[in-house]
Write a structure and sequence with these properties.
- The chain has 431 residues and is an alpha/beta fold.
- The chain folds into 4 domains: 120 residues, Rossmann fold, CATH 3.40.50; 107 residues, Transcription Regulator spoIIAA (2-Layer Sandwich), CATH 3.30.750; 118 residues, Transcription Regulator spoIIAA (2-Layer Sandwich), CATH 3.30.750.200; 60 residues, OB fold (Dihydrolipoamide Acetyltransferase, E2P) (Beta Barrel).
- The protein is built from 12 helices and 19 strands.
- The protein has a 5-stranded parallel beta sheet, sandwiched between helices. Strands 15-16-17-19-18 form a 5-stranded mixed barrel.
- The longest helix has 26 residues.
- It is globular and about 60 Å long.
Length: 431
């Protein structure tokens, strides 16, 4: 029995693809090994969103080669699409497989072990031919519905490495959902590069979600990171459905119109505010989280203040704060008025504190409310951990309950686990 280990860097799309590939290897009789242990083959699924991402990927590949010199290394993902020639020339990996052929990775590796050689270029290009994952690294099942992007934000290289926007056939998505629910998954997470722009054979994102809600089974749906679009009132009303988790991570990036224009984003602060207000009108306790970039070229103290004020106004319960990182090949890399690293660090800390204050306020709002908690794991001390439908973390005594089951709880005391940012609720079981 051959052993295969996976190292995944980057976004949820990569996580979905790794889960599907791991299941494919396991179904064929391979043993899934920990990435820190020994294996016959290591698959590194890379990210290239920033220069720092490239450095982390190179480091990961080198560490594997140094620790496991005899192992087969297959590198795939966005860094391959961006730096394929560099990776091939370095000879650090045995196989370099681009995103368009990633779904064939099992066949490529399996052919290698059977014949001693394999040619990735001989396999068809296909972004969506992953088999449904049945045994993954996560308790939730990620399902990719969309790939690529047409936005061309000035800081982003994704359209160049993931290609133009492409949507998966709706019928295949429905089949994928049915299969993972049949495998026992209780939560399905829809993921993609720009999901809100999903459009396939007359079905848009709103219709896709509504149709998934009508699929039989005891499961819930969560929408992962999504770009801000003019969501219709009908779409927002879907969050009143018990299967659709009232949480979205909507990527703001900046609360300053001036900065948004230079980022080549396609909305204004006023439009984003209106969207958030309409969401809260349908579900006052709706959990909104976001991404914000600090230190974008040309960001002044005033435009940064506008971002801070807007983040406080909306009350995002979590802000994933990124310090702007130059990405060679993008328009922003050549922009004047690059912000010094020391100022980026200062602004990042300010935004982090706003995020913490917002989280505290949101948790206090939710305290005492009922949630349907999905038990994701039970630790060695008998403590069950998981999330309610609003994506709030909960712990409770695991006596009499099992992993991957739902339990109705009331959100009790708020405690910190390790540091002030890791707040969780102590759940109280209710009938």
């Amino acid at each position: 029995m051959k052993k295969v280990a996976f190292k995944t860097l980057g976004c949820r799309v990569n996580l979905y693809e790794t889960d599907a590939l791991a299941s494919r290897f396991k179904a064929a009789g391979y043993e899934i090994a920990d990435s820190d242990s020994g294996a016959d083959v290591f698959v590194v699924n890379t990210c290239t969103v920033t220069n720092t991402s490239d450095q982390k990927c190179r480091q990961a590949i080198r560490q594997i080669r140094r620790k496991h010199p005899e192992a087969l290394i297959a590198v795939t993902g966005c860094m391959v699409n961006h730096r394929k020639d560099e990776l091939l020339k370095s000879g650090i990996a045995d196989y370099v497989i681009d995103n368009e052929r990633k779904a064939a990775l099992f066949d490529i590796i399996d052919e290698h072990f059977k014949t001693g050689n394999s040619d990735p270029e001989g396999y068809d290009r296909d972004l969506f031919s992953y088999q449904p994952a049945f045994d993954t690294f996560h308790t939730r099942s990620l399902i990719k519905i969309h790939d690529g992007c047409n936005n061309f934000c000035s800081y982003c290289i994704i359209p160049m490495v993931r290609g133009r926007a492409t949507s998966r056939r709706a019928a295949d998505i429905y089949d994928n959902v049915r299969e993972v629910v049949a495998h026992g998954f209780k939560e399905v997470v829809l993921t993609g590069v720009n999901m809100g722009r999903y459009q396939s054979e007359g079905t848009n994102f709103e219709q896709l979600v509504e149709n998934i809600l009508n699929i039989d089974g005891d499961f819930r749906i969560r929408v992962s990171s999504i770009e801000p679009d003019q969501f219709s009132d009908h779409f927002l009303s879907l969050f009143q459905h018990e299967k659709l988790a009232p949480h979205m991570h909507i990527c703001l990036q900046s609360g300053s119109d001036d900065t948004l224009k230079r980022m080549h984003r396609f909305y204004t602060v006023a439009q984003f505010r209106d969207m958030c207000q309409r969401i809260k009108a349908f579900r006052p306790d709706f959990n909104l989280t976001t991404d914000i970039i600090v230190g974008f070229p040309g960001e002044t103290e005033q435009t940064f203040k506008e971002s801070c004020d807007f983040a406080k106004e909306i009350g995002f319960s979590h802000i994933h704060t990124f310090k702007y990182s130059v990405r060679n090949g993008t328009k922003a890399a050549a922009m004047p008025d690059q912000v010094p690293e020391s100022i980026k660090t200062e602004r990042s800390e300010v935004m982090r504190q706003i995020s913490l204050d917002n989280k505290t306020q949101y948790f206090e709002l939710m305290q005492g409310k009922s949630q349907r908690m999905l038990i994701e794991r039970i630790d060695s001390e008998g403590v069950a951990r998981g999330y309610g439908e609003n994506y709030v973390p909960v712990i409770l005594n695991a006596k009499g309950i099992e992993k991957n089951t739902y339990i109705n709880i009331k959100l009790g005391e708020i405690v910190n686990q390790g540091n002030e940012e890791k707040m969780v609720f102590i759940g109280e079981s209710i009938s």
